Predict the structure of Heme haloperoxidase family profile domain-containing protein.
Amino acid sequence: MFDLVYFTTLVLAFAAPTIAFPAHASLAGLSREEMDKALGTLKFTPPPPPPGPLDFSGTKLVNDAEHPFMDARPGDIRGPCPGLNTLASHGYISRSGITSCSEIITAVMEGFNMENNLAIFTCYSAFLVNGNLVTDKLSIGQKTAKTGPDPPKPATVAGLNTHNVFEGDTSMTRADAYFGGDNHSFNETLFQGFVDFSKRYGGGKYNLTVAGEYRYKRIQDSIATNPTFNFIAPRIFSAYSESVNPINLWVDGRQDDGQLDTEVARSFFQKMRFPDDFHRAARPMNGENELDVLAAHPIEPGTNVNGVNTYTPDPTSGTLPDKCTLYENHVNRTVRSLYPNPTGNLLVALKANMHYFYTSVQPKGCKEIFPYGR
Ligand code: HEM
């Protein structure tokens, strides 16, 4: 389930007594002994509640003088999410790429006009599995040898690159982890598929019709080529959400017509940069048009159970329209499997973050669950 490089690196980090546990590395999956060692070196930061909705939620210039684009410096982290990469390049979140959910939620609302509950749902679902719950820090990707000092250091943490707990297969412009492990870098060949589909189905623009066709194509690609293809919760949520984010959040708020120019798309996907004069969306965007993408080619959550072309539905997985089961799956299965017996500050932090996560589905009438007690 985890990235091998990540665990190898953690093991090496523990082997050297002088190296403290990285404050932005996830504690998920550590043995009791490793956990105790790590917790001894980390300072507990109680997680603050998530920020509420914006006071002013209309469109406005966001590529402004206070948020100039700057290239990532050596050592800065960027990852599989072009939205968060862009916010880091413009200083809406820390340019280092090490951040927190409070900072991300404010930034995705301020910079893109993502709706408050969607921002909370997305961020806490990722933070619970990829973040350091004790220090309240999250890395938006992985420090790679390429960006390290000379001589290059090995990767230290996987952050949002960690495979199959939030990051997953069948991305639009990133390869499946199965193919060589680079699941986070922009891939020009895949992007050309995105452009090609925008021409075929959208008259040159990426829109909801294209999203339905391209999402289906990427799923079919993974079924046919990736023997480990996995498309159950939480990936089922993130994949459809990511198909509509470009339509909802990358079309300039003054244009507001759901038709994304593919050069604008490239600016975000590859260059991690707001176009000049970019104005955020005209209103808070809640991502509910993801259901239109699913409706174009309905597919049940499932996996390739025995090699390529063995896609089999998994009836125990939450489905896209059923956010309550997605929430329950995540809390009761994914997070619990990563943290079977938390104690001390880790337990306090887990309970608090799970509650914050719950607040995003509370308006849908979901029942709060307490896998670690109240
Ligand atoms: C709210 C916090 C957010 C978190 C924690 C997050 C996390 C992620 C992660 C882990 C991925 C990789 C999934 C994968 O394809 O395997 C991803 C992809 C993506 N994210 Fe985000 N994201 C967030 C907000 C945003 C925002 C605000 C936007 C747009 C403005 C955005 C746009 C995208 C897109 C388009 C992809 C798909 C990339 C591709 O398929 O090539 N995300 N995100």
